[in-house]
Amino acid sequence: MPSTFAWLAVDAEQRRRMMEAVDQFRDETTIDDLGVGGIRDAFSDTFFPGTSTLHTRLRYVLFIPWLMQEASTRATAEEMATRYHDLERDFIGALERGTDEGEQGIIGRRAGKALQRVPSVLYGGMLVQWGILETGLTAREHFARIEQNRRLDADSPRVEDEGLGSVRIPDGLDPRLPLRPEGLLKSADFALTSPEVEYLKETITRNNAGTLLARLAHRRPTTWTATGTMPSAPWADDVLDLLDPVADRGLRTTLDLAERFSLYTQGANLLYNLLLAEATSGDPDRFRDDRVEHYRERLAQWADEAAAHRPFDAADLLGLGQLMAARRRNFPDRTRTFLENWFDEARSSRTVADSRSARELISRRERLVKGSRARLRPGNLKALNAWSGASGTARMYFRWSNVTTLLKDLYDGEGRH
């Protein structure tokens, strides 16, 4: 049998991050040409621990342990592992039977039984971070514990109260898990029940107290009454209104830091794209519009917004360093120096498009980050010609669109039996 659960041999979170990085190369808004993706991910993990851009629907964090429980009814750990491998793929059909044809979020709808990126890989980090799965435990180890407990039960004498005299080994799944629904393998959907919602609220908060995720799990923004009215960003006023001015002071400070970091680094990426547009302007038929004019207009709009915000100063850079240290992420001196210089340039936001020092800063940074793959590297026409006209130009919202999808599932399940 092939290696079925990619998370058996390697850490689930490491594998999830690798897949997430690959996906970012398919999305022109999230490519990290200037090497600040580690800071973006540190903010994301701080606000929304356990989440990923690969997550589709919230109920998967229950489907996975329920399928593990179903597989554990087999006799041996090896048989359980084989059954679990099949269940993760067969479950695609159960979801298709239980949901409407246009339902979003079914993992493997197209791949079917050839699915490689199974839910247990995509959600492994979340299961651990939210306390649903024991840290470091693989599926195979879980099944081995089940088998070992059965041996202990069989070999242990009965005691007077009709219990078993053996000391059982925890199987690694949260014993508070909601009961597995009847007929799960025949038909399933993403609609959480009220008991499942309460369980998820409790386990998220217990394991991630004080985070924005925990706050939002318990309190829905008052203006979020429909899909079209969800808050536009994690620092939107209707989100901040949920936070206590005193108890959540640190969280508010980090949200402010994230908002300004997102704003100012977008300017760096827009200038980078302007330089690329200028470098390819010799071919007027390459794009449908004038890319140089396009990015000059976007930089002008950005400059107006940047001028209305507090500049990024030395204390803010210190805050970034502390955030990276808290998340155990590397924050190299060259990245710190680049950001310090860029934030100084951004103080003159309305002239940054034509600033020679700002342009040189961006060009040097790309060459440092990408080496021989740098598009602005002299003579590297192959890389330059591969530019699609936009690369990493969007604001960073730190997984907000993914998180709001998960939160909507949570909110929709409240009161559902």
How are the secondary structure elements laid out?
Layout: H1 12-24, H2 37-47, H3 60-71, H4 77-98, H5 119-122, H6 124-129, H7 139-155, H8 194-207, H9 212-218, H10 237-240, H11 249-279, H12 291-307, H13 314-326, H14 333-346, H15 356-370, H16 381-385, H17 400-413
User: How much of the sequence is in beta strands?
Assistant: under 5%
Mind telling me the C-alpha Rg? 25 Å
- Largest sheet descriptor: none
Summed up, the helix count is 17
Overall number of structural domains: 2
* DSSP, total strands: 0
Please tell me what the overall shape is. elongated
Q: How far is the N terminus from the C terminus?
A: 40 Å
Mean pLDDT across residues: 91
- The succession of helices and strands, N to C, reads HHHHHHHHHHHHHHHHH
Approximate helicity band: 40-55%
**Low-pLDDT segments:** 1-10, 25-29
Give me the secondary-structure category.
mainly alpha
